[in-house]
Amino acid sequence: MTINEAERIIAVRSLGTLGSGPTEELAAIADLARELLKIPRAAVHIVDEDWLRIAVQAGIQVDECSRDKSICTRVVETGKILVIEDLKSDVQLCSLPYVAGTPGFRFYAGVPLELEPGLIVATFCVLDVVPRSFSDDERRLLQKFGKVANGLLRLQRSNSLMSLNERNLREAVQTDPLTLTYNRFALDGMVPERLYEALEQKKLFGALLIDLDRFKSINDTHGHAIGDAILQEAAHRFRCLTEESDIIVRIGGDEFAIFMPDIEDDADLAKRAGSLVDAFRAPIKLSSEKALPLTLSIGGALASQGEEPILDLLARADKALYEAKAGGRNRFVLDDTSELVKN
Which of 62, 153, 170, 65 lies closest to 111, judged by CA? Predict the structure, then answer.
């Protein structure tokens, strides 16, 4: 099944915030499914850009998780009902945290929910802590619950769109919900537009590609909550050290990019990269933890003529970033078209 991921994320964001909790109707459908199917958990899961969001859950309560650890991602990607009678027998799923650990799920069945044909945003799923078979009648019943949940999500979307115009919606799909910077979808939209604008006006356009050094070990040692707090603090520092016209993008994970549409010259780009590296040489102090060391590796590149695609500019910055990391991290390198400035 071919999925336009950008359009799918637009559809997800069109549902509005889920932070206010489920509607009474959606909660009732999940609870009814749990009772009729005699199963300990029923839920509607929204598959967002990077995370699985819980719209409603009845019975066993679990926390949200990353998208790559979610069985529901399979349902969204295939657009088909999925039944796994024993999760322990699936070599790809048996090691998932909520299968191998608490609450120890063993059975899963889910159906896709779509706001429009092809725009699958969620699943209606049921889970059990013991293996079980799933009859044809139970499959049909699950699909009926899915249709009702589908209708409720479409109603929620209509209500949300009444307060959002198209421009706000496009802005929402290009925004990373954790750091409130732009996300990678901006690389297909506003960033190329600003690049071509700058080049047409004979201006220089700078790109800094940034890695948070050894972030994975911090995340693994201190947990995802601390990792998320560090990403938010990093984004805050970026905003404090950049110009209003600059575009901060979270490419994914711990990788960011800062695009600068009005750079004076190589020395200006080097100065701004250096100020970012210097700012992160001070440890990050979080209220619940001792100060954690966090440094940056940065690769930079400058577009100054022609119509260089944004991905080519990023490729040059990425090559410079590789050299910065290979040289010991906690430093920046500008690509060799800029006489290879190092710090």
Answer: 153
Provide the β-strand partners of residue 211: 255, 297
Q: Are 239 and 248 in contact (CB under 8 A)?
A: yes
Angle, in degrees to the nearest 10, between helices 190-200 and 310-326: 100
Q: Which residues are CB-neighbours of 153 under 8 A, at least 6 positions away?
A: 15, 26, 44, 55, 113, 115, 121, 122
- Give me the amino acid identity at 245: S
With b for 16 or more beta-carbon neighbours within 10 A and e for fewer, the 247-269 pattern comes to bbbbbeebbbbbbbbebeebeeb
The first and second tokens of residue 73, run together, are 């991602």
Backbone phi and psi for residue 18, each to the nearest 5 degrees, phi listed first? -100, 0
The string of DSSP letters for 228-262 reads: HHHHHHHHHHHHHTS-TT-EEEEEETTEEEEEEEE
Q: What is the pLDDT of residue 165?
A: 62
Query: What local confidence, expressed as pLDDT, does residue 293 receive?
Result: 81
Which helix (H) or strand (E) segment holds residue 125: the answer is: strand 119-128
Residues of the chain with pLDDT under 50: 19, 338-343
Catalytic residue numbers, as ranges: 254
pLDDT value of position 166: 59
Q: What is the reported pLDDT for 155? A: 86
Give the per-residue pLDDT at 337: 60
